[in-house]
Amino acid sequence: QSALTQPPSVSGSPGQSVTISCTGTSSDVGSYNRVSWYQQPPGTAPKLMIYEVSNRPSGVPDRFSGSKSDNTASLTISGLQAEDEADYYCSSYTSSTTVVFGGGTKLTVL
Amino acid sequence: EVQLVESGGGLVQPGGSLRLSCAASGFTFSSYWMHWVRQAPGKGLVWVSRINNDGSSTTYAGSVKGRFTISRDNAKNTLYLQMNSVRAEDTAVYYCTKGGLAHFDYWGQGTLVTVSS
């Protein structure tokens, strides 16, 4: 199972919006609404930000939103803040009943 | 408060074995799927294995299938990962996670496994 494809890096200024894409195949992202997004600041454990494509766990700001179209899922962060600077990973359930992650995207807040 | 505390990591020689443990508290352990996820130094996240709430169903990534075994003891609120025939590429921080079928809503702080002679 190949990793999902994410851009290595994205950046934005405070207050702006950024979108991180996550491209899979019809065997994972395209077939299941089980896409999740995780935030990992340096030296810390990951934190769940979005699950099942667009659901936010309690405590996650509504500046974070998720969507999906065909084989590509997206995480959008609006009103960018300095504290959002971190690595972001997507994941998806697969037709093999396993889970596959993306390679990760480093978000820099300029 | 949900807490997941991993232990058992360390230095192991190629071909050797190691058992990781994860002590869970703050939630009804026997009601949730549990997973192991690993992260090699400076690299991305990789899913390793999943076990259902009563331990009757397990799934593994292809890279560890036949070498690693996930298990749980609901009476002790503890998750395990038995790692056999380890390889250099198994070197990583191993995270214990709570979640659903394919998402992870709480993570431990991880335990480092280093495979080297």
Question: What features would you describe in this structure?
Answer:
The complex is a heterodimer of chains A (110) and B (117). Chain A has 110 residues and is mainly beta. In chain A, 0% of the residues lie in helices and 44% in strands. Chain A contains no helices and 9 strands. Chain A has strands spanning 9-12, 18-23, 35-40, 47-50, 64-69, 72-77, 86-93, 99-101, 105-109. In chain A, strands 1, 3, 4, 7, 8 and 9 form a 6-stranded mixed β-sheet that branches. A 3-stranded antiparallel β-sheet of chain A has the order 2-6-5, with no helix packed on it. In chain A, a hairpin with a 6-residue loop joins strand 3 (35-40) and strand 4. The termini of chain A are far apart. In chain B, 0% of the residues lie in helices and 53% in strands. In chain B, the strands form 2 sheets. In chain B, strands 2, 4, 5, 6, 9, 10 and 11 form a 7-stranded mixed β-sheet that branches. In chain B, strands 1-3-8-7 form a 4-stranded antiparallel β-sheet, with no helix packed on it. Chain B is globular. The model of chain B has no long low-confidence stretch (mean pLDDT 97). The A-B interface holds A 1, 3, 32, 34, 36, 38, 40, 45-48, 51-52, 57, 89, 91-93, 97-104 and B 35, 37, 44-47, 50, 59-62, 95, 99-110.
